[in-house]
Amino acid sequence: MQHDEFGLIRLLTGDRQQADGMRSQGVVVGIGDDAAVTALSPGMQLVASCDTMTEGIHFLPVTMRDEDIGFKAMASNISDMAAMGAKARYALVALSLPKDADTEQIRRIYAGLYECADLFGVAVIGGDTTSTRGGIVLTVTILGEVPAGRALLRSGAKPGDAVFVTGPLGGSAAGLSYLLHRGTDAALWGELPAETAELVRAHTRPLPQAAAGELLQRTGLCRALNDISDGLASEAAEIAEASGVGLLIAEEKLPLAEGLRACAEKLAADPLEWVLYGGEDYQLLGTAAEADLAALREAFSGEGLPLHVIGRVTAAGEGVRLQRPDGTVQPLPKRGYNHFAAK
Amino acid sequence: MQHDEFGLIRLLTGDRQQADGMRSQGVVVGIGDDAAVTALSPGMQLVASCDTMTEGIHFLPVTMRDEDIGFKAMASNISDMAAMGAKARYALVALSLPKDADTEQIRRIYAGLYECADLFGVAVIGGDTTSTRGGIVLTVTILGEVPAGRALLRSGAKPGDAVFVTGPLGGSAAGLSYLLHRGTDAALWGELPAETAELVRAHTRPLPQAAAGELLQRTGLCRALNDISDGLASEAAEIAEASGVGLLIAEEKLPLAEGLRACAEKLAADPLEWVLYGGEDYQLLGTAAEADLAALREAFSGEGLPLHVIGRVTAAGEGVRLQRPDGTVQPLPKRGYNHFAAK
């Protein structure tokens, strides 16, 4: 890389560090000093997390363009704020690149980061750009705020609660599967059919459920919440373990991403596998008391947001289970999804 | 890596996530949910930054043990808080490791991270551990707090100010130089002579000047402040540029790390080169009005902290200059230090 630290900052941040724009987002000192200084709103608690995306593990050149890498790294972090019922406000970006990376590639990654940050009102207040042996490593740290005592945890689910998700599932895994097949199958290249394009977009440009997360916090009706980064089965297990309950999911109530069945048929894949284990859908999975469900549905429909009830909370000993369409019930084991494993 | 996410968290954090200990540090929700929740003290602003250390760039197997890598990554971030006059409170750790890394190595890196965090009262509230092609990439994001409006920036230096540093310089570069020579010279292995051990320690286990940074903020007498991560010449240039001033540094007033001259002689190196361009000393470089200097000295001596006046602030057009012992004055160019360049 040919730029010094400040040349690089100017290249990446352009006119974004101007005082007026940053001040309107509560930024007192932006990028360019030893650290950034910001003000939280009165009565708010600070919510913080970080997520790393690494080349070869979370993405491959055939699955994600540079802009997508930036966009998705920001999106997955904003999703963690939504999963706490918090509003994402600030981000810090640590980008490590191979020594032969050019500044144009850095600019593209940052363009994607900023595109997502702008969509959700997040100000990038700090970062570090370094060289590394090996592939791209991108860590975003996200800072948000939530009214004191109102963060939505995984641990509040109670037997009898309804289990809900905020949108369609399986799309990201289907899109990834399509991209991986395309990587080795020239016949799949060319313009994407509309439905496939949506699935690919679910993988490369996922949209965190920021509005739904904040709404769940405001209503006070959500007892446990997670975002679906590792797959429905895994996230359900986390709620079950943290809350000391079981979860019974009804297969036929699961909202499938549009075009999922057609894509599965084309790729000879199992759409249910994508829905349960695919992950990276960044929808929210939560529970609420049955008695509050009508009010919750009304709040969601008032904001034009979908809400799908997919099951109910049961006693602890029962674990996480799946009710098949024929009525039989089977355990839903928590297991990981190896993104780049050969099918 | 054989552990799942939660197994790994348990391994790394041991009993550190227990509610009582975390709560005393203002942590409402620690590691284990989608994000951590913390409370800032009333009237405080949030200060945030991140720093990455990558294998092959910031360290080599011959220069740093795993525990040192963790310790130094935490230390360099706490130093950024000190450079803002802020108190470091929380950290998030993103660790990317080669696929063949074992959990014992991860544990050692975390042991170093925690050793430093504990020394300075920092709570680790979040993190992500991932695989990567290539070497270790370790990003720490540090969160601190400072009374509203009291952060110490680079931009407040005024002509006539005294320029000070908080402690000895050059030690880290000397220690690194010794370690690099030792890496290829069997005669240098074996028990380190005491003075060399201190220099090596300055490189592998630097101590951020947290107490001095907070004191400078409390006194209200510091006009501009930086930490010396990239070398005195470079940090002086940053203050000069941000403040629109020049700086004149007196060579004979520079406090040299103990044993620096002897080490330079042994390695046929120039100790002044280490002092001016070595970096990673993590001392603070600042300015204060001449009229406030007596009060500042008294405040420092009251806390048992050293303070060395090394020059004065001049007019903008004069840039950063060095006054040699013979009285001649020469420009002090800002240039990087290539840690692993052949001497």
TrEMBL record, chains A, B:
Keyword check for Nucleotide-binding: yes
Positions that bind Mg(2+) 4: D34, S49, D80
Membrane-spanning ranges: none
EC numbers on record: 2.7.4.16
Protein name in the entry: Thiamine-monophosphate kinase
Misc: Reaction mechanism of ThiL seems to utilize a direct, inline transfer of the gamma-phosphate of ATP to TMP rather than a phosphorylated enzyme intermediate.
Gene that produces this protein: thiL
PurM-like N-terminal domain residues: 32-146
Organism: Paenibacillus chitinolyticus
GO biological-process terms attached to the record: thiamine biosynthetic process; thiamine diphosphate biosynthetic process
Family per similarity comment: Belongs to the thiamine-monophosphate kinase family.
Positions contributing to Mg(2+) 2 binding: D51, D80
Amino acids binding Mg(2+) 1: D51, D128
Pathway named in the protein's UniProt entry: Cofactor biosynthesis; thiamine diphosphate biosynthesis; thiamine diphosphate from thiamine phosphate: step 1/1
Domain of life of the native organism: Bacteria
Biological function: Catalyzes the ATP-dependent phosphorylation of thiamine-monophosphate (TMP) to form thiamine-pyrophosphate (TPP), the active form of vitamin B1.
Residues reported to bind Mg(2+) 5: D230
Chain sites annotated for binding ATP: Y110, G127, D128, R154, S229
Residues annotated as domain PurM-like C-terminal: 158-319
Keyword annotations of the record: ATP-binding, Kinase, Magnesium, Metal-binding, Nucleotide-binding, Thiamine biosynthesis, Transferase
Gene Ontology molecular-function annotations: ATP binding; magnesium ion binding; thiamine-phosphate kinase activity
